[in-house]
Amino acid sequence: QVQLVESGGDLVQPGGSLRLSCAASGSIFKINTMGWYRQAPGKQRESVAAFTPSGGTNYADSVKGRFTISRDNAKNTVYLQMNSLKPEDTAVYYCSASTWDGHTYWGQGTQVTVSS
């Protein structure tokens, strides 16, 4: 079992920045990949940023150059630094972890609202 807890969501003005955190616990040795997804009301959940199994990164075209995914292995924590935020970034952001034994885990989500 893997537990994921997101934090850092907030109300921010366009052009502002936020850093989201995802703390993992439990069977973290089973984790293969981790990433961030987001879901706006009435829309499908979409991948925002993720680590590949080899340690590389993938970003949605809509966030390239603005968002950065990073990790601190010592703290079992993944971060999403979000800069130059736009209203269309408004969504619930979810941390996700996939394990070698075929399971996918999700955090509870954290709300990011970008509005003036």
Strand content: over 45%
Q: List unreliable stretches of 5+ residues.
A: none
Report the C-alpha radius of gyration, rounded.
14 Å
Q: Report the average pLDDT across residues.
A: 96
Structural class: mainly beta
SSE ordering:
EEEEEEEEEEE
Tally of strands: 11
Q: Helix fraction?
A: under 10%
Q: Shape, please?
A: globular
Q: How many strands, what sense, and barrel or not for the largest sheet? A: 7 strands, mixed
The end-to-end span amounts to 40 Å
User: How many H/I helical runs?
Assistant: 0
Description of the molecule:
- The structure is a single chain.
- By secondary structure, the protein is mainly β.
- It has no helices and eleven strands.
- Strands 2, 4, 5, 6, 9, 10 and 11 form a seven-stranded mixed beta sheet that branches. A four-stranded antiparallel beta sheet has the order 1-3-8-7, with no helix packed on it.
- The chain is globular.
- The termini are far apart.
- The mean pLDDT is 96.
Write the layout of secondary structure elements.
Elements: E1 2-7, E2 11-12, E3 18-26, E4 31-39, E5 46-51, E6 57-59, E7 67-72, E8 77-82, E9 91-99, E10 104-106, E11 110-114
Parallel strand pairs: 2-11
Antiparallel strand pairs: 1-3, 3-8, 4-5, 4-9, 5-6, 7-8, 9-10, 9-11
